[in-house]
């Protein structure tokens, strides 16, 4: 029971971090007027998926095998989000003459193309994804998101694979 409570608290902390990330993303969109580009939308989906996994892991009283599975799933989702965020940071750091041209909006692409084609187009990036609209301490929002994904991935592994105390008989 004690191991469930410890991993559950860690997973609740991870879930809370994801909720805070999404809350700030929505704040910047609706109150600061920063519309998300297609890569931002994919990063948001990864944050939501990571948060959902943290929440499920927190609720589920999993044994050692289940906690290991949650650790692996959290790491996979965090790495996928890290990959998208890293691609976004790379696009933002391209010289201006190498920035791809702006493409159609995400809604149009989803209505017009197959999902695989949409993912290919989104991940190739566009001019709107290369624009830095917000920064803190010299790092853009995708850079901070990349850091958050890496930290949450490591934290998810740690929270679910904590060394458990061995009960010793007197």
Whole-number tally of structural domains: 1
Largest sheet: 2 strands, antiparallel
Approximately how much helix is present in the residues? over 70%
CATH 2nd-level architecture:
Up-down Bundle
Instruction: Give, in order, the helices and strands.
Output: HHHHHHEEH
Q: Which radius of gyration do the C-alpha atoms yield?
A: 19 Å
What does this structure look like?
With 170 residues, this protein is mainly alpha-helical. The protein has a single domain, classed as Bromodomain-like, CATH 1.20.1550.10. 71% of the residues lie in helices and 2% in strands. It has 7 helices and 2 strands. A two-stranded antiparallel sheet has the order 1-2. Strand 1 (135-136) and strand 2 form a beta hairpin. Helix 1 (2-30) packs antiparallel against helix 2 (38-59) and helix 2 (38-59) packs parallel to helix 7. It is globular and about 50 Å long.
């Amino acid at each position: 029971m004690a191991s469930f409570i410890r991993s559950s608290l860690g997973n609740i902390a991870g879930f809370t971090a994801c909720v805070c990330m999404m809350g700030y993303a929505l704040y910047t969109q609706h109150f600061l007027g920063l519309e998300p580009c297609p890569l931002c939308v994919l990063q948001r989906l990864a944050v939501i998926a990571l948060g959902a996994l943290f929440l499920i892991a927190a609720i589920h009283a999993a044994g050692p095998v289940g906690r290991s599975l949650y650790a692996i799933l959290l790491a996979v989702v965090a790495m996928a989000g890290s990959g998208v965020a890293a691609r976004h940071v790379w696009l933002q750091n391209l010289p201006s003459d190498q920035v791809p041209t702006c493409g159609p909006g995400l809604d149009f692409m989803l209505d017009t193309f197959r999902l695989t084609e949409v993912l290919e187009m989104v991940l190739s990036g566009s001019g709107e994804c290369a624009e830095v609209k917000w920064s803190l301490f010299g790092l853009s929002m995708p850079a901070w998101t990349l850091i958050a994904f890496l930290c949450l991935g490591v934290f998810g592994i740690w929270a679910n694979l904590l060394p458990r105390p061995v009960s010793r008989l007197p």
